[in-house]
Amino acid sequence: MNHKITQQPRRWLDSAIHHHWLTREGLALLDFHRQARLASGGFAALDGNGRIPAGAGADTLITGRMAHSYALAALQGVPGAAALAEHAIRALRGVLRDERHGGWFAADPAVTEDRTKQCYLHHFVALGAATAAHAVIPGAAALLDEVVEVIETRFWSAHEQAFVERYSQDWSELSDYRGGNSNMHGVELCLALADVRDELAWLDRALAIVERLIHRHAAARDYRILEHFHGDWSEWPDYNVDRPDDGFYPYGATPGHGFEWSRLMLHLEAALESRGRAAPPWLFADAAELFDASLRDGWASDGASGLAYTVDWQGRPNSRRRRHWTHAEALTAAAAFLRRTNEAHYERWYRQLWDFIATTFIDRARGGWQQELDSQLAIDPAESDVKPDLYHAYQATLLPRLPLTPNLALAVEGL
């Protein structure tokens, strides 16, 4: 006699073994990336073997993310993590800061000619400072006060209810461009500041950004996120049309950002409701549509395994590269939806994405995760063999085990 099995499998999120695996993988990532510490201050990008290339200097994005990541580790009780977070904070208060005009450079001025002030980078200076301040890392609270003042006076536009993108070094010229990526990480920062500083205005700002970028623009494009706009917020869909592989400003829609936005929207919904505020019904509805649209456009859409990096406005793959962070964001979004809905659809994808990462991106021979692969899942020669990023991978080992609110910095202490 055949018996039909109807019972839903136990969720991985409820499995002690899975939690142990996540913890082990997170600790391995922390050990690997501590090699990015520069004796001269800050952190640099590692090559595939975990070495700092000759002549490399401190990178602001990496250093801000390291402050955030190692402060999270310190909050969990990982020995040595607090010292690494403090090392990052010192660089953010020192060599990476523009002492003359205020704000932060993209990297150590000794190794880069770029002197522009970029919103995206300032958000990670602030995120690192916020998490480190909560972990009581020396110097972090003062850094947080300073960078929040810069963000509020320079980058947040009360008139636009969004973040502007880029200034000249002396703040005299503002670019005629508005970006979805910097505003997405602005939402991430708003969620952190609302909890770490207990300032509810940041939630209102996050909601205004989501309403503009997702509810107004992405929903009208079948939930393909338009990330490029002119300074008046008119759409700029052909921006960088010849650069679909660009790491920060690619042409077309980026499914990985669709997943990231969808998860942040669930965190925002939970944060509003935890404060006794009503979340608009469209917030969850749009997030769910965004998750499914990102799967539709991204997963194996070019006939190969994994998520394509970018697609055009008809959903056809533009860049066939497989980037580790898109998969990390997809699985943390699946975990967030699973926690929010308990639907088997998200459990299936959570498992499938971890299986893919475990067999494709985790480098068991040399450590860390492969960062950029081609469509054949080989190291992409255009990007070379690099492992600069701890942030996305490490958060992928933490977020599935945590509630949707409070923010990561507060919630991680319960692990």
UniProtKB/TrEMBL annotation:
<keyword id="KW-0413">Isomerase</keyword>
<protein>
    <submittedName>
        <fullName>AGE family epimerase/isomerase</fullName>
    </submittedName>
</protein>
<dbReference type="InterPro" id="IPR010819">
    <property type="entry name" value="AGE/CE"/>
</dbReference>
<dbReference type="InterPro" id="IPR012341">
    <property type="entry name" value="6hp_glycosidase-like_sf"/>
</dbReference>
<dbReference type="Pfam" id="PF07221">
    <property type="entry name" value="GlcNAc_2-epim"/>
</dbReference>
<dbReference type="InterPro" id="IPR008928">
    <property type="entry name" value="6-hairpin_glycosidase_sf"/>
</dbReference>
<comment type="similarity">
    <text>Belongs to the N-acylglucosamine 2-epimerase family.</text>
</comment>
